[in-house]
Design goal:
It is built from 9 helices and 8 strands. Helices cover about 45% and strands about 15% of the residues. The strands form 2 sheets. It has a 5-stranded parallel beta sheet with strand order 2-3-1-4-8, sandwiched between helices. The protein has about 220 residues and is of the alpha/beta class. The chain has a domain at about 5-120 and about 180-215: 3-Layer(aba) Sandwich (Rossmann fold), CATH 3.40.50. The structure holds adenosine monophosphate (AMP). Adenosine monophosphate binds near residues 59, 61 and 173.
Amino acid sequence: MALRRIIMLGAPGSGKGTQAKFLGDKLDLVHISSGDLFREAQKNGTELGKLAKSYMEKGELVPDNVTVRMVVDHILPLKDEGFILDGFPRNLSQARALDRALEEEKIPIELVVNLKVPQDILLRRLSGRRMCRNCGEIYNVYTLPPQVEDRCDKCSGELYQRADDTEEVVRHRIEVYTKETQPLVGYYQHRGKLSEIENENDINVVRENLMRLLE
Ligand code: AMP
């Protein structure tokens, strides 16, 4: 039976957002990005959005209690559909909280894909990243440019650079990733759920490798 509950792990700039969207479409899974949920909350001016902003602009993690509740609330209604998580969990305490919530519902995570990318490539990718203000589609001025400059191919929305993609914040985000998120690789490996894919290559090669993994 096809896998229905997947986590996409990787550093900022590893391509996990792009690949999670691709997989979500391909496998008909709901793509849940914690970063997108926080950006949406900011756009809507909610209390959650205001709280998240202060952490996000510094490249810090939003506190676990708020983040876990937000993501779990999104997952539980999708019990029967399946989902792909992108950007969550980001530390061991979030991973344990997620496991507890999913075990209670008898819908455990089935696969964790770790996208591996050397640090120098991460920096270049993040500085070139652009996002659609309207639909959230991700581009890269070096590796995945839009057909028309600064316009989304899908919806013609305006493309922008995230405030946390500046070099200083990016360096800090990578440090936070190394300290907080990287231990999750061992956590899921120990549980027999981890698969790793190099994501230095052409985006299409990575997609093929991903699909092969899921066959
Ligand atoms: P992303 O779009 O995944 O790179 O996330 C952007 C920012 O949102 C991060 O740098 C954090 O400030 C916040 N964020 C996203 N996901 C989480 C999470 N699981 N835990 C804590 N903060 C998060």
